């Protein structure tokens, strides 16, 4: 009955009090900066600048779509939830930016479109799916030659440390010898070491560029950015970004940044 009521509220009033809106959440807005800053750093190094094209796969309510659009990129967001996309459109309009939104499963949508983007971003999605290898393949195919694929993963150490933090030694030890499966009663997660991620992205024909930690301080300390003053949040952000190459094993997520090799003259399509 509650599910029916929630669906009706979403469809009729575009409202769901139980929905976790990542764009509107103050903590998630802070964490979004931890994604945007390193992606922009590596994009600029490869001469990828506005109005280049950006795809966010699994965009939810536009947490990353809107910031990229505000920077001047031509952004497309994909999500399965029509409710989330309606909110994303509202937030984009309120921010005074334009973005395109597509509803559907990213595997089906991307396979059906065949479009290529300068930047393809997928944050906090693939670690939840047993089809993550298939998803990564399709995401890689959506990157134009010379472009970047930026995807966040759960590091294996996260589940190990979180299990110990919860005093669950059995779950901690079960993580050591696996890369996916149930964890602490969940249906499914997957996790990888840096070496495993490098091998995975190499198998996709991508060039490994960087591994950037996302949130090393909040989940271990139990302190949310929203609990801090604006000045404290600024210092926190600077600290997270300044030590960008350190502490990935203690991060809540790790962001893989990989490049699709540019086409050589021999590989370029013959248009004559």
Describe the structure.
Helix content is 42%, strand content 19%. It is an alpha/beta fold and 272 residues long. It has a domain at 2-154 and 193-215 and 254-259: Vaccinia Virus protein VP39 (Rossmann fold, 3-Layer(aba) Sandwich). It has a 7-stranded mixed beta sheet, sandwiched between helices. A two-stranded antiparallel sheet has the order 6-7. It starts with a helix and ends in a 13-residue tail after the last strand.
Biggest beta sheet attributes: 7 strands, mixed
The CATH topology annotation of the domain at 2-154 and 193-215 and 254-259 reads as Rossmann fold
SSE order, one letter for each helix or strand: HHEHEHEHEHEHHEEHEHHE
Spatial separation of the terminal alpha carbons: 62 Å
Q: Any idea what the CATH architecture of the domain at 2-154 and 193-215 and 254-259 is? A: 3-Layer(aba) Sandwich
* Spatial order of the strands forming the largest sheet: 3-2-1-4-5-9-8
What does the oligomeric state look like here? Answer: single chain
- The number of strands is 9
